[in-house]
## 1
Amino acid sequence: MGKIEVNRERCKACGLCISVCPKKLICFSRAANSQGFYPAEPGPEEECTGCALCAEACPDVAIEVWR
Amino acid sequence: MQKRLFIKGNEALAYGAIKAGCRYYFGYPITPQNDIPEYLSRHLAKVEGCFIQAESEVASINMLLGASAAGARAMTSSSSPGISLMQEGISYLAGSELPGVIVNITRSGPGLGGISASQGDYFQATRGGGHGDYRTIVLAPHSVQEMHDLTMLAFDLADSYRNPAVILADAVLGQMQETMEDRPYQPMELSPKDWTLTGASGREPNLIKSLYLKEGAMEKHNWKLFEKYQRMKKEVRYELTREEDAQLMVVAFGTPARVSKTAIRLARTQGLKVGLFRPMTLFPFPAQALLDLSQRVKRFISFEMNTGQMVEDVKLSVARDADVHFYGHPPGSPPVPEELLDAIKKVY
Amino acid sequence: MKQVFKRPQSLKDVPFHFCPGCHHGTIHRLVAEAIDAFNFRERTIGVAGVGCSVFVYEYFHIDVAEAPHGRAPAVATGLKRVRPDRIIFTYQGDGDLASIGMSEIVHTANRGENITVIFVNNTVYGMTGGQMAPTTLLGQQTTTSPYGRNFNQDGYPIRMAEMLATLEGTAFSVRVALNSPANLMKAKKAVRQAFEMQMNDMGFSFVEILSSCPTNWGLNPLKANERVERELIPYFPLGTFKERKESDHL
């Protein structure tokens, strides 16, 4: 049982978190942030295990994780 | 009709170098001059030239020393902090009486500074910069055309006097794009290079050095260099704009000179009789021309992108009864004509 | 639920200026995590190189000195000799460390200075727009190797971690990468171990981190990671090349 929060304004939509999530829960948001990036958006909380691979991969320290 | 190119200053300079027969370039990346090594990495190969991205600016200037000693036309380029690194090498070039072209696309300083244009390296270029009693030829373009033309001249002057030549430009000139005429290279008449290191086959060995230990030798060598710098005075070049009836002359080189031309047009529409004296050689400095002008014009304002460097040479050159003012726009954003106009009005 | 991942305290809560997908951000975080883990933020001093690494002082809650290009190991030497009980690290790119800074890094390692060097190897000059670096691979096109790096013209890429490992003064030399979660975890351990070596007075520690530069490689961040796997790792193998078990400092 886990949860992540993405800081939308810090995310640069690099896609690394999306590629490392073992359950493919993260996707690109349809709403841009103030920089013009379409940030990563967490998927359904029930599925997240809080493995934190997304946060580890994020070069912008934009993700926090709870488990 | 002359072919025209729409080209960036840095590239026009590199293009001019190849035209003048430069086949050896050694350099290191630094903003805002990277277009020069990048252009030459593409084009020197096409003329069977040699491009090396050296490990540092220290290595670059020393590779230039070697290539020049072997008789080649060689060039290096950098920007302010990199030029600082080259000072020892430039001193060696001057002491060994070797030609070579060193391009400084000046950025702001001191230290790491920033990447915007400045003229903070005027002292570095004209006062030696490195150790010892030497001068380098210093040429100051103010347009993309001159980035091209003065580079060709630099190679000829360097060979003619067996002395390093510096092209002192700035980030604005390096990065801007303008049209220029694709003028042909018109070589100066030069004597053959019989002093180069090519292997002492059928001749006495040649020696390239700057070490003089024997009694009296160093003194003799220093006077020899001094005589050379006196002879260089005939290479002075400058441009006058609206000087005929001027009450005040702006003195400026490089990007501020371009800005001055607009400011002077504006001033004239407001009835101010202002002109521009634009040195194109900073060494030899057009001191005599300024002295002559100052017999009639008694007010000068030196306009520079620094906190006061060339103004000292202007003061040294003009007649005792002429006033020399200074307007400085230290690096950051490029200066605008209106601010020079304000400064002119304060001292007119 | 409790929080299992958050920003390290040593890292300021400000946006990074780095390009999307650039590993500099990740490496900054790994270094900050190590500083937090050992709780020595208040006695750590960083030395920034010149390049994309120059903005280290914007991001860490620590004292930082800016060194001229390539000279960070020398500046770090000065700092450590005056303050031997402080934790001193340099943060340098491949142009800064392996090109203009080659003399400084070799001699700092050779003297066995008890500092940590974080070496970000992305095979190009990033800040200045993608010129060839000493670690650019053969055949790699850059803005100053437009026809691809050729050993006749440009020599071979340099393997710093192996080379520094041959020096007696080097206590720890390791190469890691960030292209996959598994490699990232190994990188985290290596950075931590390097700082631990310094804490225990073991001598000179060196961590080479294979990184991507999506902008100058002309690849998106995912493809850039694939390039690290496919092209960089075969030439720059991952692993520990030297690991001293006992300090030779008296």
## 2
Amino acid sequence: MNRKKLVVIGNGMAPGRMLEHLFENAPDAYDVTIFNAEPRVNYDRIMLSPVLSGEKTFEDIVIHGDGWYVKHGVMLYKGHKVVEIDREARTVRSEHGEVASYDKLVIATGSAPFIIPVPGKDLPGVLTYRDLDDVDAMLLAAQARGKAVVIGGGLLGLEAAAGLKERGMDVTVLHLMPTLMERQLDPAAGYLLKRELENRGIKVVTKANTKQIVGDGRVEGVELEDGTIIPASLVVMAVGIRPNAALAKEAGLAVNRGIVVSAGMQTSDPDIYSVGECAEVDGKVYGLVAPLYQMAEVAAGHLAGDTAKQFVDRATPTRLKVTGIDLYSAGDFAEGDDREEIVLRDATAGVYRRLVLRDNRIIGTVLYGDAGDGPWFFDMLKKETDIAEMRDTLIFGQAYQGGDPLDPTAAVAALPDDAEICGCNGVCKGKIVSTITQKGLTSLDDVRAHTKASNSCGTCTGLVEQLMTLTLGDSYNPAAVQPMCKCTDLGHDDVRRLIKAKGLKTIPAVMQELEWKTSCGCAKCRPALNYYLVCDWPDEYADDYQSRFINERVHANIQKDGTYSVVPRMWGGVTSSAELRAIADVVDKFEIPTVKVTGGQRIDMLGIRKEDLPAVWADLGKAGFVSGQAYAKGLRTVKTCVGSDWCRFGTQDSTGLGIRIEKFMWGSWTPAKVKMAVSGCPRNCAEATCKDVGVVCVDSGFEIHFAGAAGLDIKGTEVLGMVKTEDEALEHIVALTQMYREQGRYLERIYKWAKRIGYDEVRRQIMDDADKRKAYFDRFVFSQNFAQVDPWSERVSGKDKHEFNPMATVTLEAAE
Amino acid sequence: MNALMQNWVAIGSLNDIPRRGARCVKNGEMTIAVFRTADDQVFALEDKCPHRNGPLSQGIVHDGCVTCPLHNWVISLETGKAQGADEGSTASFPVRLDGDTVLLAIGIK
């Protein structure tokens, strides 16, 4: 099939959604190339506020991971800004000189934040709020816990202000108009919102006209028209956005405020389309996600040959994504002669509801404090329902219609099938219910994966859960313990408890006694059970290698091309010329393509063929190396600094202690990987305060730390306590690790486990209760009898030979 | 016999393959993974996940499926099809037991 070439400029939510529709309806029509000025994949921009406030991480808000682009054969240029469109040659060119030709082109350059043209706007410390880089810059600034000024009291500005406050900054919001969010709220709701923000310690100044941003070399404050100066080390401008239409304009396309497109999203050049915030339809540009997704659907239709699809301007409700503030507005709520209104206020509960009516139909609504009825009002607004009959009770919401108050589930049950549940993704009730039934979905994640409902901003999660309860009955219980996997209804903690209580010592015994629903488990529960049994019955349980992930089965790390990497132990990060020479010889002999120093102070050899692993290990073993277990849910590295041996600041022998800990604890299996470090003084060169377990040496002894993280999450450690001698330090660290080994859920790192059971509880058992500590220590030592066997030398002497060689090599003879 | 003919090749004994595990068979450029389930059924798939070509032979075998070691796609041993919400398929080959001997069929044009 002859595929056409589609080039997309921009990788935001609108083009991402457009491509999803296109791949669904015409998967083979185009070879797709995307140029993204941001150096990353498509993520959910609406969710930047929860990332700023710390409720979510960037990984949580990725819409299309790298795998999606590979799966659909999309060529994605990350960090490539397109600088020229040549309509004659039908090519685009990026800043880095990459040229791509197109049959169809989609411009989705989005928008840029509007910068108010005041003196000082270019000072370092003045930011906008638009993409992840802005969030990262704000988070960096927030670390100093200084003062921040947010200019702009609209949706984005208030979300930024709440997030920065959450991060510990002293925040002032400046807003030009008399009330906050005046485009979405009436003055009464704006007042309630202002009061709520002030209760949270955010200062709000309305009618504030910024004169200039002051500072010498970097931001020091904001000066208002009336001469007031508000000190600030960070200024965030969130006063609005402007369509990015410059590229289209230079290419000679019709441009007004945005790139002018037809209702079919076509620009003035029929082979070029535009979607997203940069596109202008019928004189209007859009910033909320629902209309942008509608544009995406229309453009995808046209690209696939369905020219019937047309963009239609629809009312879109607004919600503020600040935790604890429930606010909803939709439609037109200005006052007027032909309009009536119904208002409900409950001052103590902080509730305000207003409906604007014309001819007995709802044309606008503002809800504050309890916005649960928003979708119901909005549904009637869209359908222009005549509300004359329920007018007296209308303002109380759906639950009060028809006599007795209904419970929330009944209210959802009463919604018609075409009622929109998820506004971001335009998913209606009927679609969710039918997908749950047809595909047999039982978890919220499944429903999100299949319907996209509650997959963007998440405010409709409650409604989706109620629909699940409605459809699945009591079998869906969102508050229930999360089961280990679909093979059982039991959670990890119950399984661990029952393994001990019932004395279950094999995987089949666990599955039989705990009534597993599958015959031999799955790739989620088997590795977990194997770990629990290894940990609980170290002398009796025979490790089941077929229930271990490949890395732990072959004692090396699988790479994306099916080759492996090998990391030998380098005790405490200390090595010698003989060791380095042996590594160099191995690298030469096996033609190992990449050699790299790891973050844990050792050397990684990458790109080794599986068949070669035993021979590589044999050579490394001759030089005295053992496995570094860089692949294991177990003790990985103990990073050290040079300590009192060399360093003029060193207070203790940190290198020696690190090596001692590593030699004592290597080989132990743990729920998730464990990385440690020992620093010789509080300057902390070994970075011990972001490790699972760390030691900071001081003159008077050893400060033991735990529960740090520096991966998906970043978290400084908690202090476990101070001890005076190396022996005590070792005993405390070993006991702490054993406590984690016995209580942690499989794949749960120490920082998550410790947070779950409480830091004080850990301190109580390890620091204060000497008997408990000793018992943990003894159990660890006992289990090490069975764990401290070098897996590499075992395999060099022939164990698990089958893992490393093909079973047969077929040579076909010519068939007659 | 000049159309598609199947050629049964003995590739070894059932006991060469661990239960709930796999071994590889090299066939020219292609690697075929031969799986043995908990109840001693055998299956053969090309050793390539439809997602990103992960070596399926290295995955965890459970209930007639294998979970790819790279990104946890679950592939049916019988059909080679991806399970759950993922879509894709890997080639499967006929395989049978004659006593303890595992026989693999490779099509020859």
